[in-house]
Each structure stands twice: as C-alpha cells, then as structure tokens.
Amino acid sequence: MRYLVSALVACFGSLLLVAVFEPAVAATVTVDFEDEELELPPDSYYNGSDQAGGFTSRGVFFPNDYDTLFGIWAGWSYSNMTDTTTPGFGNQYSAYTGEGAAGSATYAVGFQSEFTAVYPLIPIPEHFAPQSLSITNTTYAALSMLLGDAFAKQFGGETGDDPDWFLLSIIGLDAALEPIGTVEFYLADYRFTDPADDYVLDEWTVVDVSLLAEARTLKFALSSSDVGPFGMNTPAYFALDNLLLACSLPGDVDDDGEVDFQDFLVLQAGYGATTGAERSDGDLDDDNDVDFQDFLVLQAHYGDMCDTLAAATSASAASVPEPASWLMCLVGAAALAIRAFARRAASKPSRRI
C-alpha cells in the first residue's frame, strides 16, 4: 500500500512541474498554406492590408509588415495567383510556376524590403525543427531577370556571358537571434562555363534545411549580382511552399507523433531500469534510467499530438491539468507502484519454515 500512496503523492505533487529534456526527432508536419482559414477567392492574394501583422498556417506564424501610408508590404504574403506571363511590379504575387508546390493552389510569397530592412522570418515553434522547404521564383523576379526592365538588367547581358546570379540565403537564428548556420540556394545562376547551363529557376525545388534543425527562427535574405546606387536591382521576391518540420514531443516514447497510452505501455515495460536505458526504453529525462520522473514527463504531455501544432506548443504553458492528465496520473501511479512492489517482492529471498 505504501508504494501506491508514495506514487500518488508524488504524482499529485508534480502536476505543475515542467520537464526539460532533449527529445529525439519524430513525426513531421507540413506547412502548406492550404488551411481553411487562409482560403482565398480565385487568383487573389493576402498582403497584410488588414494590419494583422501576419498570418498562421498549420500553427506556424508568418510575420508581415504593411505600410498603410504607401500601401506597401514586406515579410510574407500568401497567394493563389496563376499569372506566369505579365511582367512588372503589378504581378508581384504570382509564382512563376503558376501554382503551388505539387500542384497545390496556395503558397507564400516572401519580399525583402531594401528600404525598411524587413526580411521574411519564420519563428519555429517549440518542439519542432526545420527539415526542408520548397522554393521557386515569382513571375515578377523571373521575367525581370530573363527580359530586363526599367530598373534591372537582363541576366547575362547583351551577349549572354555576364556572370549574373540571384541568391536566396536561408539563415538559422538561435533564441537570441544570433546566426548558427546558413543554407544557400540560387534562384538564378549565369556563371557556368557552358551558357546552356545558365538558368532562371522555373519550377518548385525542395531545399534541405536540416542543417538548421537547431534554429528557433529562419531568416530569408536575397542578394544579386545586379546592384545599383540604391541597392539590389533584381526584384527581391521569392515563393515558398511545403515547409517540413520534424516534431519531437516530450513524452512520445515510440516517436509516432502523439503522447498516448502506447507510450505509457513502453515506459511501463522498461520501468525500473537503473543503467543504460534509452528513450525507446522510456528514459525521457536522459538520465539513463526509467523511473517515476520519466512517467511525470509523459503525464505532463499526455494527449499532445504533432498533427496540431497548437497542442504541442501550448502544453508547456498549461497551468491547469486536463482531465486526461489526472486520469493518466492515477492509472500510471497505480500501475508503476504495483510493478515496483512486484519487483521488490521477487527480489526478496524465500523463507523456509
């Protein structure tokens, strides 16, 4: 009985504890801008004119800066525009592919303001890590490079031999917004020995950003070989879709993207291990054993799912346990107490009369 009482006391006394540990990579979430809340009329866009400061897709926030005085924006917009032939600033919201990645309807457009120094940023939610994303040119930028315009040169120049380039740098920032790494991706490149290899990107391309898995923010910066007295001449636009995030939920022992009773069963099976335990055994606090502290991690996050980013990011902020947590606490405490009692009884030598 004292095992059960001790376990219950520890359980109820720990409901406000927050477990901190380094989880392993598990399930994934794709941010695809096809949320019902982001639905647009055909061939239209959102540019932040409502002063909301940004928008959210699949739980990830995309900041937007809109200037009501001049009616201009920077950061992120989203769009389902399909115009691949109209050049110029009036067509700034169309992807050069005429659609989103993999034939989807909606995608994001990033714009870097040279005058206000506003860059497209993506804050990465807690428990998630960037893995990859799909990138292509906008029609505005692509046609400017291919044809030239009143502000920017035609890439390659008159002979086609100018070594022009248009570069997207994806910079990983830590919690203090200090850079920890960069992934570079060329949206256009005319530096090849054989001019036949020169290109302006005209398709969605997956870019691996797993190098930046520890980043808490992704910053997108554009640069070009075509620079004038006021900065870059090439239109500072690109399109983004299908941001893939790896999910690592505290308490998700079996790495299936949710914290549920299956995780408890794994932990229960490994309960009592004192050395050499791993996450797959139920060691959730990285101390090489499986004990009641590991159960507390699981209990605190019981019910969290990677499918819903809000569930994963809100768990650590909850101040009142959900009913499932109380039930988990009761059931788990009893089960672990019984298991501990059984092991202790089995270890005692039998008495002969």
CATH superfamily of the largest domain: Protein of unknown function DUF4465
Percentage beta strand:
25-35%
Mean pLDDT reading: 83
**Helical content band:** 10-25%
Which descriptors would you attach to this protein?
Jelly Rolls, 20% helix, nine-stranded antiparallel β-sheet, five-stranded antiparallel β-sheet, single chain, alpha+beta, 2 domains, 16 strands, 353 residues
Walk me through the topology.
Layout: H1 2-13, E1 28-31, E2 45-46, E3 54-57, E4 60-67, E5 72-79, E6 107-111, E7 121-123, E8 128-136, H2 139-147, E9 165-173, E10 179-189, E11 199-200, E12 205-208, E13 217-224, E14 227-228, E15 231-232, E16 237-247, H3 261-270, H4 292-300, H5 309-314, H6 323-347
Antiparallel strand pairs: 1-16, 2-5, 3-4, 4-5, 5-6, 6-16, 7-13, 8-12, 8-16, 9-10, 9-13, 10-11, 14-15
Helix pairs in contact: 1-6, 4-6
Summary?
With 353 residues, the chain is an alpha+beta fold.
How is this structure best described in words?
This protein is of the alpha+beta class and 353 residues long. The protein folds into two domains: 2-24 and 251-347, no CATH class; 28-247, Protein of unknown function DUF4465 (Jelly Rolls), CATH 2.60.120. The chain contains six helices and 16 strands. The strands form three sheets. Strands 1, 2, 3, 4, 5, 6, 8, 12 and 16 form a nine-stranded antiparallel sheet that branches. The chain has a five-stranded antiparallel sheet with strand order 7-13-9-10-11. It has a two-stranded antiparallel sheet with strand order 14-15. The chain is elongated, with a radius of gyration of 26 Å. Mean pLDDT is 83; it is low at 1-26 and 310-327.
